[in-house]
Amino acid sequence: MKLTTTLGAAVALTLFAASAFAYDADWKRGRVYYRSVCTSCHAAKAGGAINPSTKTKAEWAAYLKADKHAKGKDTVKQYVSTAYRASIKSSNKAAEKFATTPDQELMDDIAAFLTKGAKDGDSPASCS
Fold first, then answer.
1. What letter would DSSP give residue 15?
2. Cα 111 from chain centroid?
3. Measured distance CA(59)–CA(119) in Å, rounded
4. 48 near 41, Cβ under 8 Å?
5. Per-residue pLDDT, 7
6. Where do the domains of the chain lie?
7. What is the pTM of this model?
8. 3-state SS record for 44-84
9. Residues of the chain whose pLDDT is less than 50?
10. What pLDDT does residue 21 have?
């Protein structure tokens, strides 16, 4: 009985500690970055903006997990990195605004926006 109680308490403490340090992605911040950085670049250089509603949640998740951008020529993470943001911050206000945001937090924010705005998301979004 004592072992079961101790084990239960240990599991509860572990779950509490894990949830206390989990980052809760901010889809609004992801939307600002996506529209200001991703969409502006695609519109200027890659033949047009890619709206979040062009893919399903599963397709966006697979794309981000594969981490292949420009048909595998580079990575998505490259365009969310602190180094990339530093390289464009003089010409992009969002890159400047999020210059010190940890890479993984910003990636999570973008993923949250893409999930919310996906074809089958809560609020299918365009990038107007």
1. H
2. 3
3. 10
4. no
5. 45
6. 26-117
7. 0.78
8. HHCCCCCCHHHCCHHHHHHHHHHCCECCCCECCHHHCCHHH
9. 7, 10-13, 15-19
10. 62
